[in-house]
Design a protein that fits this description.
six-stranded mixed sheet; six-stranded antiparallel beta barrel; 8 helices
């Protein structure tokens, strides 16, 4: 028998709100509370409140923590300023992507790595192994945090009403300790929706109190509880990759068009360096399949795994697809042969159950917020 899914500290809140729950990466998570389209639009126009407590937090501390992360990850973590965060990846020796991560530098010798829920154990095991020989301790902090996110244009005003932390001075991809509604939190200006917003790391015992305080503070600002379903359509519109779809162990960061996360200039060796150097050289000579946006001309939705075709030839594969509430049309991300990857490329279709449905090839992202 498979173990029953884990429940977050906010499980009772979700059920009281009538959420449709789903098993996601071993966690019982809210898929939606009502209309996922309404939840999506709330984030785009007002604000959405998410429970992201399934994400995997791993703490590294000690004089060698920065060096250990520089060896373990593709990014240059040693150059990260205290209070800032960085998007990066952990790769295999062959360059394949094990996970994409956000690393927060909370102090000179104190880092928090946030992994995707589905890969948290793999990342923990790899970081533990790769930190051997460095003066650093790796700690599994998955049970130490609940994670709430407030995303959308009204999120700064909602949060400001509950904290005296300097939100105006908090840059994108930065975090600071503060108190929100009397709850100790790490307040991070990060998110996965394409909107301005904040992620709040708190003790699980404080999660329900904070959720209720945010709900109360946001009731006149359109704050809406949001599930994983709209989180997926929001990140898709924003062109953000999802592990297991746009990112896998069979792809390097260069295959995914994210070679910028690999920092060869950092001191010392790092796992996957040789394979990634080769991948970088190959990408410079001949672009691999390119990640592009597809907008359907009809109403049928291209889904992950569907083939992209040009004439009778298969030229790519859809990695993510859904109806776009913002565009009002079905959209998809797909890896497509370079010859058909330019925006405006003609004759590109997706094979949807035997029918070749015409698509417009567009540059990513589909949606970019007005700043």
């Amino acid at each position: 028998m498979s173990p029953s899914p884990r429940r977050t500290a906010l499980d009772a809140v979700h059920r009281a709100l009538g959420a449709t729950m789903t098993d996601f990466a071993g966690w019982d998570m809210p898929l939606r509370y009502g209309s996922e389209r309404d939840e999506h639009q709330a984030v785009r126009t007002a604000a959405g409140l998410f429970d992201l407590s399934h994400m995997g937090e791993i703490t590294l501390t000690g004089p060698g923590a920065a060096a250990a992360l520089d060896y373990a990850l593709a990014g240059n973590i040693g150059k990260l300023a205290v209070g800032r965060a960085r998007y990066t990846m952990i790769c295999r020796e062959d360059g394949g992507i094990l996970d994409d991560l956000i690393v927060y530098r909370l102090g000179e010798t104190h880092f928090m790595v946030v992994a995707n829920a589905s890969n948290a154990q793999v990342v923990l095991d790899e970081l533990t192994a790769r930190a051997e020989g460095f003066d650093a301790a790796v700690r599994d902090d998955r049970d130490a945090y609940a994670l709430l996110a407030v995303q959308g244009p009204n999120s700064p005003a909602i949060l400001k009403s509950l904290t005296d932390a300097d939100l105006d001075g908090l840059k994108y991809y930065a975090g600071l300790p503060g108190t929100v509604a009397g709850v100790d939190a790490l307040i991070a200006r990060t998110g996965y929706t394409g909107e301005d917003g904040f992620e709040l790391f708190v003790a699980p015992a404080d999660a329900e109190r904070l959720w209720q305080a945010l709900t109360e503070a946001g009731k006149d600002a359109g704050l809406t509880p949001c599930g994983l379903s709209c989180r997926d359509t929001l990140r898709l519109e924003a062109g953000m990759p999802l592990y297991g779809h746009e990112l896998t162990t069979s792809l390097t960061p260069y295959d995914a068009g994210l070679g910028r996360v690999v920092k060869f200039e950092k001191e010392g060796d790092f796992v996957g360096r040789m394979a990634l150097a080769t991948a970088a050289e190959l990408a410079a000579v001949k672009a691999p399949r390119k990640l592009v946006g597809l907008v359907a001309r009809g109403r049928r939705v291209p889904r992950a795994g569907y083939q992209v075709v040009a004439g009778d030839a298969v030229v790519g594969e859809v990695t993510s697809g859904a109806p776009s509430p913002t565009l009002g049309k079905p959209i998809a991300m797909a890896y497509v042969d370079a010859a058909h990857a330019e925006p405006g490329s003609e004759g590109v279709s997706v094979d949807i159950r035997g029918n070749h449905e015409p698509m417009d090839v567009v540059a990513l992202p589909f949606y970019k917020r007005q700043k």
